[in-house]
Design goal:
Layout lengths: L1 H6 L2 H20 L6 H13 L2 E2 H8 L3 H13 L3 E5 L7 E5 L3 H18 L5 H23 L2
Antiparallel strand pairs: 1-3, 2-3
Helix pairs in contact: 2-6
Length: 147
Amino acid sequence: MQGDRLDASLGNALTRMFRFQNRVHNRGLRGTGVSVEQAHVLSVLWERGAMTIGALQKQLAVSSATLTGAIDRMEADGLVRRVPSPDDRRAFVLEPRVAPGLRAKIEAAVQSGEDRCFRALGKRDRAELLRLLVACATDLEPDAVAR
């Protein structure tokens, strides 16, 4: 039956989980003035340090147009700033520009959301799910960036 095929679809389950996770995180981020997408950008910059838009695009696996628009809005809101790259005078590096108190609220909301989204799994299952998703993403990455 068609319902059985849909119920057995990893892609369908992953898409549903992504949507639920976004909703949980967006609810948790209310009051911070930051969306889940913006929190993701900021989290990468906080963890990996300032980087070019190209490096950030690769890390987030989003299109250049999508990221540029998001960065423009974040810059207008004072969440990030573009500074000239010390390594390439044609490029810019993105730096997070969030006050420490707001950063703490964002990080707490993201952690709380992650805990909620995966509370049905034990520590070992979470690690295994992460391992499997990273393996699939690593395998797909060359195809995704090929034009």
